[in-house]
Amino acid sequence: MTGTLAEPFDLAAPALRLRAVAAARGDAPFDRLVSGGILLDMATGELREADIGLVGPLIASVHGRGGRGDASEIVDAAGGYVVPGLIDTHMHVESSMVTPATYTDAVLARGVTTVVWDPHEFGNVHGLAGVDYAIAATRGLPLRFVVLAPSCVPSAPGLEAAGADFGPEAVAAILVRPEIGGVAEVMNMRDVIAGEPRMSGIVQAGLAAGKPVCGHARSLAGADLMAFMAAGVTSDHELVSGADLMEKLRAGLTIELRGSHDHLLPEFVAALNQLGRLPQTVTLCTDDVFPDDLLNAGGLDDVVRRLVRYGFDPFWALQAATLNAARRLGREDLGLVAAGRRADLVVFDDLTDFRARHVLTNGRTVARDGRVTEPARPTPPGAFGASMKIGALSPTDFGVRSQGSRVRVATIDRPRFTRWGEAETTVSDGTVVPPEGATLIAVAHRHGLADSKPRVGYLREWGSWKGAFATTVSHDSHNLTVFGGNAEDMALAANAVIAAGGGMAVVADGRVTALLPLPVSGLVSDAPLAAVAAGFAALRQAMDAIVDWQPPYLVFKACFGATLACNAGPHQTDRGIADVASGRVLATPVLEILAPELS
Q: What does the pLDDT look like over 354-366, one tens digit per residue?
């Protein structure tokens, strides 16, 4: 920041511009000179030898190699490729289970200089205080955070209960804040398409504020896609196929091509390669990155790396992550290495591994050789450590009570793309015996705004579980969610998480085999990334011992989205089995008593 002016207006400071003009003429030295590198020009696609002179946070000159040497500091880029800082157009810090400061140190060192953060996880747990924390925790960090106003707190009103409720007035009040860059992903697609007043009002609040409205348009096509866009939504990251990508590009959506569904990336690369050009509306995002992946592979740099590995042109990948992203954000100061632009620069060793040798933000070196020059200072989370407003549970809480001796029950079939199913089963001592091959799922409200009795359902096509898994990271209301093959293990896992103040636990054979405490909101830890990553990796390994995964849909990640009630199909919530299409909630999966109780 220069003076009292906030980005992007700090670059307009007259004294700064006059200094830069003088340095560009050669009448004054540069503050820093990035020397000896090969510039990858995002405007032309050219590779050319160039030096870059910086004055404060501003690029003053891009000129031929060796033409100038008058600078207070020389940044040696010899043999490296100079590109603008990478911009992640959609992400959730909470998915990495660390604080914003810890996240900053992890990605900044890899060349990511700007991220667009939707803090709806914190919003769903703590309401406005969660958004306040997101703003406060990112203020002054060397990584640029564009914080968005959560649009779906909760994601499916009436079908679930979160820790807060943001209607149009609340979202409009958040959007007034200068730190807020737009409306975060609008996930309640059906209500937007139907013209429902609450969601229409939230989208209208973004339009009235003159800020972009970001989308979540999973599986929308044809008239539904047109209606969603006509409401004012302008982007999407929920792509399901190459054909889906092309339809949404042709419709005019900005695409946030995400790296969190790796199995789809080769199909997206093939579709864009067949098109033969990179549309200006293609940007890149991470969406969700688990802590061990963040530590070992990185953030948006990893998305760029994998796209290139799958056959994408390195220039296209970088253009999507820089110039295209900057245009989406309306940030003319970012995304291009040119005089008059902001000095966010990365020097990569090559265009295959994308190892960042130097990273500069606002003209200052903030990382060298994969390490930040100065660790970011965290913001204390305050009262966020008391988010588990639920008492201990017993095995009987994970059974479905019913009269009769035989019943017909509803089931939730298939991970990710769920559908309704039915099964017949028996009742023993007033408790329904889970249908053959079914996995139990239970969701208990943990925010203190509704009763905390677990609502239990039956999943099919989820494999055979030899234990239980409990988590408070459960999109997007983040209630306590428990999966398992028997009620005893489920109770043990749930109570381990409750006692830890939130987090995740794995239970097998009556004992806790892995526990990852996430005491900040039940979402993140303030421990170092390496410690959180190690704990999460151990938890993943413990999960592999209790269920056999079947990629690409029956995977560990599916456990965190099994409660996402805004998506099509039935989903278990703290109110029961919910279906956004019909708006109905089944408090119990028992549909019909088929036979009376046996005498």
A: 999 999 999 999 9
* Mean pLDDT calculated for residue range 484-511: 97
Helix (H) or strand (E) holding 544: helix 529-544
CA distance 581 to 566: 9
**CA geometry: angle 115, 118, 120, nearest 5 deg:** 155
- Number of residues that this document lists for the chain: 599
Q: What is the dihedral of CA 319, 321, 326, 327, to 10 degrees?
A: 60
At 3 the pLDDT is 31
Q: What is the pLDDT of residue 7?
A: 86
- As a whole number of angstroms, the distance between CA 521 and CA 386 comes to 7
Residue-wise over 179-201: b if at least 16 C-beta within 10 A, else e? ebbbbbbbbbbbbbbeeeebbbe
222-230 vs 242-251: helix crossing angle, rounded to 10: 40
Q: To which residue do tokens 């006509």 refer?
A: 230
Residues 57-96 pLDDT 10s: 999 999 999 999 999 999 999 999 999 999 999 999 999 9
Expressed in percent and rounded to 5, the helix, strand and coil fractions of the chain are 30, 30, 40
- The residue assigned the tokens 């109770």 is 491
How far is 91 from 115, CA to CA, in rounded Å?
A: 7
**What is the rounded CA–CA span in Å between residue 336 and residue 329?**
13
pLDDT digits (tens, 9 = 90+) for 557-578: 999 999 999 998 999 999 999 9
- pLDDT at site 1: 23
**What pLDDT, on the 0 to 100 scale, is given for residue 4?**
36
Mean pLDDT in residue range 475-494: 97
Q: Residue 160 corresponds to which tokens in the numbers above? A: 């679930």
| Least confident residue range of 6-15, 164-173, 230-239, 481-490 | 6-15
User: Where are the extended beta strands (E) located within 374-510?
Assistant: 406-413, 419-428, 431-432, 439-444, 455-460, 468-471, 480-484, 503-508
Torsion of CA 143, 342, 254, 259, to 10 degrees: -40
CA distance 168 to 450: 22
Residue 489 and residue 496 in contact, taking contact as beta carbons nearer than 8 Å: no
| Residue 339 identity (one-letter amino acid) | A
CA atoms within 13 A on the CB side of 484: 28
Question: Measuring CA to CA, how many Å separate 535 from each of 105, 347, 514, 524, 525?
Answer: 19, 32, 8, 12, 11
Q: What is the pLDDT averaged over residues 191-211?
A: 97
Amino acid at 320: A
What sign results for the dihedral spanned by CA atoms 591, 596, 598, 599? positive
Angstrom distance (rounded) from CA 161 to CA 446: 9
Which pLDDT value is given to residue 599? 61
Q: pTM to 2 decimals?
A: 0.96
Name the pairing type of β-strands 455-460 and 406-413. Answer: parallel
Strand blocks (E) in 323-479: 345-348, 356-361, 364-368, 371-372, 406-413, 419-428, 431-432, 439-444, 455-460, 468-471
Please give the structure tokens belonging to residue 213.
């409205």
Q: What percent of the chain has pLDDT over 90?
A: 95
CB 335 within 8 A of CB 327: yes
Q: CA–CA separation, 60 vs 582, rounded Å?
A: 58
Q: How does DSSP classify residue 375?
A: P
Cα separation, 271 vs 264, whole angstroms: 11
